[in-house]
Amino acid sequence: MKVKIFVTLVILFVGFGFINQSSAQVQDYKSAIGIRLGYPLSLSYKTFISNAGAVEGILGYRNWSYYSWFSVGALYEHHMTISAVDGLAWYVGGGAQAYFWSFDKDHYLNSSDFATFSFGLMGALGLDYKFANIPLNISADWLPTFVIGGEFLTGFGGSYGGLGVRYTFR
Questions:
Q1: Which of 26, 17, 36 is nearest to 125 (CA)?
Q2: DSSP string, 87-122
Q3: Which of 121, 118, 120, 112 is CA-nearest to residue 150?
Q4: For 42-57, how does the pLDDT look when each residue is reduced to its tens digit (9 = 90+)?
Q5: What is the dihedral of CA 164, 78, 5, 147, to 10 degrees?
Q6: Per residue in 77-124, pLDDT tens?
Q7: For the chain, where are the alpha helices, taking DSSP H only?
Q8: Is the model's pTM score more than 0.85?
């Protein structure tokens, strides 16, 4: 049931975005590279492939007391300007991510160290701001994710997302 609600919300946000797109340049940069602080800590590369559409590649890492994971993913983000603030846009989109998990045997009885793989389908909802006089972009987003596969890792994760800080290129 949660998956149906999630998919419906993503479709509505993306559809609304396409209806309200403008012909003006949405952001004042072509590409940006930097870090995403949040869940997980990540490296990010974002590039616009059209006036309002961007692709963001994400390499993430998370380490906890008894497990760690490395992730590789990509998002398509459709940007819409917020005319009240120059350089500010909001975006919606979606993508996918692969997770490579490693677990420590000391936290599982009668177990040895093990690793597993899972796949995630992500939505994206966020804000993107490009400073006018310096080559810096910041973003804040929420990336609700539905994880599939890997031992006991299947399910919805609503805690993904964070704050991005990137150096921009024209």
A1: 17
A2: TEEEEEEEEEEEEEEEE-GGGSTT---EEEEEEEEE
A3: 118
A4: 999 999 999 999 999 9
A5: -50
A6: 999 999 999 999 999 999 999 988 877 766 555 566 667 788 999 999
A7: 2-19
A8: no
